[in-house]
Design brief:
Radius of gyration: 20 Å
Helix content: 25-40%
Oligomer: single chain
Order of helices and strands: EEHEEEEEHHHHHHH
Strand order of the largest sheet: 2-1-5-3-4
Bound molecules: iron/sulfur cluster, FE2/S2 (inorganic) cluster
Number of helices: 8
Strand content: 5-15%
Number of strands: 7
Distance between the termini: 54 Å
Structural class: alpha+beta
Length: 255
């Protein structure tokens, strides 16, 4: 396939950026989207030009670092698929593809398609710790966990922190990510002692980081590569309200 790309190029965060046109020739439908960019970069390097910067690590849909807007959709046209697992058979010969970084006040552009998602790290940090007794590893079955809770906690824990939910939301809200992180600990017995302090700390950290408010567009759920449900947002809001009614404060660790 021969494709025309319009790729966002930005030298560094504070510099002005612009879309630059590239031709990608002889693209195999079996290539991944990132491999297609790799081949464009090989051509740029051969010509002595700066290659396109983009985030990637696992290329298996696990690490969350490959986020980019592809024709206006976070991670591109395939549902439940991170950009690294998108394949070029999703496109047709002659297509034009626009590739941009996440657009969010809370995720400033570092270079080209790479954004700073450290605001997510701060939200996780604010969640603090889980109380456990130290010493020898406990007997695995000493804390019974209902199957349904274990399954739900695992589903919430599949969030890879990619930021697509924020990028696609017209408000730039981070509720889906934060709710998933709140839920996977808050559902398990080990997460109960700090459950209400944790939700207050994480929600208030999220609100301080420049993310927008959630107004139920549901775009986040539609583009999430891991299928995280907006039901977790309702659960987070219930826990937050309960915590506030009980006068819970942020745990000291969260500062
Ligand atoms: S909730 Fe989904 S879209 Fe948002 S950061 Fe987690 S995996 Fe990515
Ligand atoms: S490169 Fe790790 S999720 Fe895409």
């Amino acid at each position: 396939m021969d494709l025309t790309l319009h790729v966002w190029r930005q030298e560094r965060g504070e510099a002005a950026g612009r879309l630059v046109r590239y031709e990608a020739r002889g693209v195999s439908p079996d290539m991944s989207f990132l491999e297609m960019i790799d081949t464009v970069n090989e051509g740029l390097i051969e010509r002595g030009e700066r290659p396109i910067e983009f985030g990637h690590d696992c290329r298996e849909g696990i690490c969350g670092s490959c986020g980019m807007m592809i024709n206006g959709e976070a991670h591109g046209p395939w549902r439940l698929t991170a950009a690294c697992q998108l394949h070029m058979r999703a496109f047709r010969d002659g297509d034009t593809i626009t590739i941009e970084p996440w657009r969010s006040r809370a995720f400033p552009v570092l270079q080209d398609l790479v954004v700073d998602r450290s605001a997510f790290d701060r939200i996780i940090e604010a969640g603090g710790y889980v109380s456990v007794n130290t010493g020898e590893a406990p007997e695995a079955s000493s804390i019974p966990v209902p199957k349904e809770n274990a399954d739900d906690a695992f589903d919430a824990a599949t969030c890879i922190g990619c930021g697509a939910c924020v990028a696609q939301c017209p408000n730039g809200a981070a509720q889906l990510f934060t709710a998933a992180k709140v839920a996977h600990l808050g559902l398990l017995p080990q997460g109960q002692p700090e459950r209400y302090g944790r939700v207050v700390a994480m929600v208030e950290e999220m609100e301080s980081r420049g993310f927008g408010a959630c107004s139920n567009f549901r775009e986040c759920q539609a583009v999430c590569p891991k299928g995280i449900s907006i039901d977790w947002i309702a659960r987070m809001n219930r826990d937050y309200l309960k915590a506030k009614l009980q006068g819970r404060r942020k745990p000291a660790l969260a500062g």
